[in-house]
Amino acid sequence: MQVKMILPALTEATSPFFRPIKYSLFPPLGLATLAGYLDPGDEVTITDEHVQRVDTSDEPDLVVIQVYITSARRAYELADHYRAKGAHVCLGGLHVTSLPEEAAQHADTIFCGPGEDTWPRFLADLRAGQPAPRYDSTERTLAGLPPIRRDLIERHRYLVPNSIVVSRGCPHVCDFCYKEAFFEGGKSFYTQTVDAALAEIDRLPGRHLYFLDDHLFGNARFATALFDGMRGMGRLWQAAGTVQAVLRPGLLEKAVESGLRSLFVGFETVNAGNLAEQRKWQNIDRDYGAVIRRLHDHGVMVNGSFVFGMDHDDPSVFDRTVEWAIGHGVETATFHILTPYPGTRLYDRMAKAGRLLHSDWDRYDTRTVVFKPARMTARQLEDGYWRAYRDFYRWGSILRGAATKPTLAGKARHAAYAGGWKKFEPAWDLIIRARQATRALPVLETVLAGGLRSRRPDTSGRLLPSVATADTERRQPERA
Q: Which of 203, 222, 423, 432: disulfide with 20, CB 3.0–4.6 Å?
């Protein structure tokens, strides 16, 4: 059987604002995981449209397409093309799970939810000549997961070929999070066995790892055992975690001892009122400044994630957020415009209140306003978002952030990481066009390895109070 797996390009990856490095970070791990279930005699290819063209002249027997909200239009184009050529087309992913009836119009089979239980059943049904039109995930386990088909990934096309996922989902239930819809109908957070995770890590060459788990620290017992097992491997790694996990005694220390050097942290907002509104319970009454100090004291760089446009945000939120992040030495920041994805509680709430502007999924990209903000205009929200990026990544801002570090090495590391991520687009473009992204990995490893324990001055960094005067009061993120 000839099998073609496709990750269509997100709409934002084809826009004039396209940053090649952003979309050349990680290979399509989900498709490579599904490929592990295929028979040895099957001929399979994986095409990532972010880094290569899709050759549509072929005639595969089975086509598998992973769909996100801003790649839905392109995914449906490809699906319709291959169905017309007689291929059996499968669609799955976040958007398919959120809007299955829409996706079913373009597929022979759709998959709702994770595929570890449904994909093997489909393959058995397909070989028996009786594939179903829809498979819904109910059994959530990573037991018996076959080795990921990393041989199908062209490593040289990616800056971070050693990406890895050892869990699924997240234990938290934030209203704006797309993952809640994806895991509906079963467990929304579960992990591999520690031994299986360590075996997968051991298969990866080199030093660097990037855990793409939504919340690697979500199960403290699992995370502790994983970090203990990674000690002595000589790895340098990055991941995502929560403010709650960072403040948990002992867990961060074990992560650092096993090689953690950079953490993506969902601060989301500097307005405390927004947290309860979005059910971001794990951030409420947490000292954000203590989170940053704790990470920096252990040599861990911070990629802070912030969402603009929640109902307690007014036009002052952009400058206040940027100033707060710079003042606390956050190395890189990821900003988003609040986006109500279909299938989330936020979407349902916005739809019921008549606040959604349209259902053009191409524009649900966290950079475009698709709803009516409460305390500012759509134009103010969009302009403020772009201004936040410009202001945070100015050389003056980068140097100000670097100046918060107590050592010369720390200042240099901050400037190198933040500047390298945003200030050298021509160099990144050249490297990526030459298909040599992986050659930049030693530079990343050198910067990550520069983390040393150092005590920093104790400065307050609690949530900033929201502006609450009558006249002025009006989240599928990049990871650096």
A: 432
We find that the CATH architecture of domain 2-136 is 3-Layer(aba) Sandwich (3.40)
How many Å apart are CA 450 and CA 345, to the nearest integer?
42
Q: Which 3 state secondary structure label does DSSP give 238?
A: strand
**421 or 435, greater pLDDT:** 421
Tell me how far CA of residue 121 lies from CA of 14, 135, 350, in angstroms: 35, 9, 37
d(CA 101, CA 98): 9
Nearest partner of 368 among 376, 353, 352, 357, judged by Cα: 357
pLDDT at 13 over 90: no
Question: Model-level pTM?
Answer: 0.88
Q: How far is CA 307 from CA 69, 180, 270, 312, 338, in A?
A: 18, 18, 9, 12, 6
Residue 425 identity: E
Domain ranges of the chain: 2-136, 159-448
Distance separating alpha carbons of residues 404 and 407, to the nearest angstrom: 9
Place 276 in a pLDDT band, splitting at 50, 70 and 90: low
Contact (Cβ atoms closer than 8 angstroms) between residue 132 and residue 118: no
Pairwise CA distance, residues 251 & 221, whole Å: 9
Distance from chain centroid for Cα 359 = 23
Averaged pLDDT for residues 368-387: 97
Q: How many Cβ atoms are within 10 Å of 377's Cβ, its own excluded? A: 13
State pLDDT tens for residues 127-175. 999 999 999 999 999 988 999 999 999 999 999 999 999 999 887 776 7
CATH number of the domain located at residue range(s) 159-448 in this protein: 3.80.30.20
Burial of 452 per CB tally in 10 Å (0-12, 13-18, 19+): exposed
Decide if 113 contacts 184 (C-beta within 8 A).
yes
* Interatomic CA distance for residues 394 and 236, integer angstroms: 28
Exposed/middle/buried for 60, CB within 10 Å: 0-12, 13-18, 19+? buried
Residues in the chain: 480
Average pLDDT over residues 327-354: 94
Name the residue with tokens 């252990």: 298
Give the tens place of pLDDT for each residue, 51-78: 999 999 999 999 999 999 999 999 999 9
Report yes or no: 395 and 419 within 8 Å, Cβ to Cβ: yes
